[in-house]
Write a structure and sequence with these properties.
By secondary structure, this protein is an alpha/beta fold. 42% of the residues lie in helices and 16% in strands. It contains eleven helices and eleven strands. The strands form three sheets. A five-stranded parallel β-sheet has the order 8-7-9-10-11. The chain has a four-stranded mixed β-sheet with strand order 3-4-6-5, with helices on both faces. The radius of gyration is 20 Å and the shape is globular.
Length: 255
């Protein structure tokens, strides 16, 4: 249950449109619901601003279905990450409105309504091989209601490609930069924009990239100020952080 729904429920109680028994019934599963193999955190959106996200890898179809059923009943926007096509089929059997994003490996049900105006998140990736991680970031941000500008294949091997996209980069409020190999793209972008930059190293690269370790260390040692680094291939974590930054700013403006 998100803050708007809880506020509406309490307002209905205040104005006599509902009674205490109904309110107690609606709130009985807060802060979580124990379904045996999982404790679904129904209170997550009230605490953190966004509903719990289902990490699908390692879970059985039955387990994911059970979690989806609880969250769907509560009206939450549902995002499942690292999901296979086969797992998506099992989810769609109980939630026909579910959508699968193959590149991102994400399942989305009832995403938040997209904000038509800024703030905007730019998702930038160095090469086409980085697109799966970039799409995980983009789909996560869009599920949480934030518009995304995808700027792909602009790595430092052809720096002119990035420079040609500078007007789009400067329109963004937060920039997520995704790169493998030596991870140099984030330092270049961080030196060109006055926005928060969130760096995502990917496991793309030849032998001495060490499955993303080289890019991770390079990003942690970036000489560009204002760069924050998340874990290897963690497009979801980068987008989540970007959305929290924007939500906090919105809260200050609205108050």
């Amino acid at each position: 249950m998100d803050q708007d729904k809880l506020r509406m429920l309490l307002e209905h109680l205040q104005h006599g449109k509902t009674d205490i028994e109904e309110v107690m019934e609606r709130l009985k599963d807060l802060p979580y619901e124990d379904i045996g193999f999982a404790k679904v955190d129904n209170h997550r959106e009230l605490r953190n601003g966004f509903a719990e996200v289902i990490y699908c890898a390692g879970k059985t179809p039955t387990q994911v279905q059970g979690i989806v059923q609880v969250m769907r009943r509560d009206g939450a926007s549902i995002l499942g990450t690292r999901a296979s096509k086969e797992l998506f089929k099992s989810v769609r059997a109980i939630a026909p409105e579910a959508v699968y994003y193959e590149d991102a490996r994400c399942i989305v049900i009832d995403p938040k309504k997209k904000k038509q105006e800024e703030p905007l998140i730019a998702v930038v990736c160095a090469g086409t091989s980085d697109i799966p991680v970039a799409e995980e970031a983009a789909v996560t941000a869009e599920t949480f209601g934030y518009p995304v500008d995808r700027i792909y294949d602009v790595g430092v091997a052809g720096l002119h490609r990035l420079l040609g996209e500078m007007p789009r980069l400067r329109q963004a409020d937060v920039v997520i930069v995704i790169a493998g190999m030596e991870g140099a793209l984030v330092s270049v972008v961080g030196g060109l924009v006055d926005r928060p930059v969130i760096a995502v190293p990917t496991s793309v690269g030849y032998g001495t990239s060490f499955h993303g370790i080289t890019a991770l260390l390079a990003m942690l040692n970036s000489c560009a100020s204002g760069v924050t680094v998340v874990n290897i291939d963690n497009g979801f974590g980068a987008a989540y952080s970007a959305c929290l930054m924007l939500k906090m700013n919105e809260r200050r403006i609205n108050h």
